[in-house]
Model the fold of this input.
Amino acid sequence: MKIQMLLVLIASSFLSSCLMSEPSEHREFMSRSDCYVYECEVASEMYVFGKVEYVKMNNAGKCAKLQLQNTFLLHFNKDIIEVYGQHPKHNIRSIIKEYAKHASDTTKLGTYFADEDGYSVTVNRLCKDKKNVYYNRFILWKSLDFETENEQSKCISQQILTTFHDWDKNKNSEINASNLIQFLKNPIQLQEFKKKKNREYVTTSVQNGKAYYFNPKNKDSTYYNYNFIPENVASNGVNKIKVFKHGKNKHSYEDDTETLIELNITNKDEALGEANLVGLSKTALEAKFGKAKLIYKGQSIYSYKNKILCVDFEDAVIKSFQYIHLNTTGMTDALLEQIFD
Done:
């Protein structure tokens, strides 16, 4: 028994040595997150194609567990490629193909993310504007999405994320802020969306509003739920939309006077337009809206005035999100506790 206890103590001492000594910071992971990450928290694996690093979740702090889960750094040809979701070894041929395609004196592959439908990449570009704070550095430039069928890939969309014409150090964040504000002001063309849906797959109900909901306090009013049942069998529940209705049309499906209060989206749906965010990679979301200023109970929180977007990720991909039109512009702990209760 004493020997067993001694072995346990030795093992515990070994595991905690990361904290007892002066640990070295892992700069690459720290530059890709808002977390402190130490060398002793990072696993390193050698392969024929190069080195792969990832944060060991059993040793990681809370921040790293939230932001760096299923994030891999692939060291390849003196470059570092960020790989999300799956270990790079599972898609190494595709990664090397994309790396070679974008390798030049002024461009290189930045990130790679694969799912069951295909994969997405971002490309970095060398800034040559001497007046720019990023001069002579590789900066996020564009994103490309590919679909894969029978081991053949086809580019289905691409988006320029950063231009190189007289841009300053704040331009990217200004673009992100503008995109976010426009989205939160009007995330969905509600009436057009409803017209596209098959009424046989829509149920409705009246529901009391929550204390934090926006409430114009009109007479003869109510909160109304639209439940959009996915026609796809392989779904993740029901997409829900809540609105504020009043007057003679308050029980009518066709009502252009209703006010959007809440989106609770768990399934992809092209009819959602800009709000078709489920399945989007974290990299792509941050390229569009920037990094969230607040993380609460594992969700990324974006806000503008009295509108908020709460995004839930799984393996660095949007699993679901909630949009809420609030009755206040103050983001407090008490309010967040109400929302996430």
